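retry 2 of 3: previous attempt timed out while embedding adenosine-5'-diphosphate. Reduced batch size to 1 and resubmitted. Inputs unchanged:
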Amino acid sequence: MERVGLLVGRERSFPDALIAEVNRRQAGVVAEYLIMDGTRITERCGYRVLIDRISHEIVCYQPYLKHAVLCGAHVINNPFWRIADDKFFGTSLAHQLGVAVPKTVVLPSKSYPEGVVTESLSNLVYPLDWRAMVEYTGLPAVLKPHWGGGWKQIHRVDTLEELWRAYDSTGQLCMILQEFIAWEQYVRCICVGKDRVLVTTWDPRRPHQERYRQEDPPIEPALHEQLVEKTLRLNRALGYEMNTVEFAIRDGIPYAIDFMNSAPDFDIASLGPVYFDWVVNAMADLVIEKARNPGEPAYRWDALLSG
Ligand SMILES: Nc1ncnc2c1ncn2[C@@H]1O[C@H](COP(=O)(O)OP(=O)(O)O)[C@@H](O)[C@H]1O
Ligand SMILES: [Mg+2]
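retry 2 succeeded.
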């Protein structure tokens, strides 16, 4: 039996259903919640596949997950890729990949940890040229953390004064300033593995559990095809195997807005039963496939370790 382990936070509906589905299929693979104590460097990882739903919050899992990769486990999502990402890098990468993105600027932080003095910041101009930045992004604009999540510190600003007020509240965070895309349609694409995409209409203006709009008219086929292709292009470049990619569509052009959700909300209450089943099945297919055929890892130190 190959083993699949899950690391989770408070969520239960998705991981319980995934464990049940993998075990129900009797494919020579068994899934379970991982239980850990202190981990020794000499310890082997007993899992072929690990699904990481929470190391962004419970950071002490991160070194364990990287160690597990070194031991040959396949971790979803890859802990090395995920940790390297941020919203500015991702947006720049998307732009280079030919995916439309909002005009975006990364900003020096408002404040710094104790001990950082004026001389420590001699590479930065002061004051910042806010007018030039806003000329580039236009107004309204969005100010948000470069490594964010859960809609924390997301500010839509309509004037320079609003921008300054919002920026003054961001403390030591590194923020990006972004063109606001006034969309006519908003979609969220759920991506599992390297080739499975579920395109959904998703309305960010609604309360959390009413955002997936299964009852909306279907997305026009040419746009649907474009969304699938762009979602795959982004995920392959970023190395995610479990992700949601949001696009704001303006004048028929999909702009990638949020596409680094390494532990997307897969709760049944958010997804609804139909999308939930799609996700559980696609994830079960993926973990079983990876448990049976782990594939070749591609790390520089891997070549050294192979002797
Ligand atoms: N540039 C933008 N244009 C229009 N809407 C945006 C833009 N950036 C963010 N939003 C809106 O704000 C929401 C939260 O921003 P997002 O980047 O997803 O942050 P988080 O990572 O915290 O979820 C998005 O779902 C979207 O509805
Ligand atoms: Mg988001």
